[in-house]
Amino acid sequence: MAERTEFRIRTATVADAQSIVDAFDSTLPYLASIGSEGQWGLVPFSERPGFLDDMAKSLEQARVWQETHEGDSNIIFAAEVVGPASTEATVPAGFAQIHEDKFSEYLYKQANIQAVDLTKLSNFVFLEVLLVHFGTGYHKGAGTALVQHVKRYGLEKGKDAVYVDCWSGNNRQLVGYYERQGFVTVEDFAFPRENKTPWIGTLLRMDLTKA
Ligand SMILES: CC(C)(COP(=O)(O)OP(=O)(O)OC[C@H]1O[C@@H](n2cnc3c(N)ncnc32)[C@H](O)[C@@H]1OP(=O)(O)O)[C@@H](O)C(=O)NCCC(=O)NCCS
């Protein structure tokens, strides 16, 4: 039986910005290989203007929020493998970004969710970003470990739910992944894009009140 990788999860810092961008880049060949290039496109994130700078700013803003609780709530968790192959090295395995009591702006503005009034929801964690680093060889299961960590974080904070949204194209495979993690679909949505077909997605919810 294959050994299960043990992940250490910590809060990411500005020093992780490049590693996070590398992880984003590493997902694109994987997504293309499963026919999901429509999810995040084909242009490497490292080549998207401002992406690295915005990531560094977001990590800095996260530090300020965690220290002072001023500004938007924002935490990025890093999953890593410590000392693989008997070395002292730490290998990045994945990242998750969360916000408390706040969704991404596009969900409020463009997603046209009917099932719930997002502006009236409170006491939740929103999982905005989840990704593994396909380039380091230790990614398998890092996403699940991060989802479990986010769930524990929500429980410790007394939150009622964790929400996530994801691309629902390519036969809803990613929706299926989140359902296997314990999320339940709230509603499908589509938002328009200039000169492109709409981006289709699904909002999902994990109930923490019965956990
Ligand atoms: C989604 C993700 C975080 C899951 O990581 P994980 O918990 O370590 O998952 P595993 O490696 O155990 O894979 C779980 C299965 O999910 C499926 N899956 C993962 N990402 C998927 C995606 N974007 N679309 C469709 N299916 C996906 C695969 O079928 C995979 O099965 P496989 O082992 O046969 O390849 C990771 O696969 C990833 O980073 N994917 C690309 C980026 C992404 O889609 N992030 C989610 C954005 S909302």
Automatic annotation (TrEMBL):
GO terms for molecular function: acyltransferase activity, transferring groups other than amino-acyl groups. Pfam families: Acetyltransf_1. Residues 7-209 form the N-acetyltransferase domain. It comes from the Eukaryota. Coiled coil: none annotated. InterPro entries: Acyl_CoA_acyltransferase, GNAT_dom. This is N-acetyltransferase domain-containing protein. It comes from Podospora appendiculata.
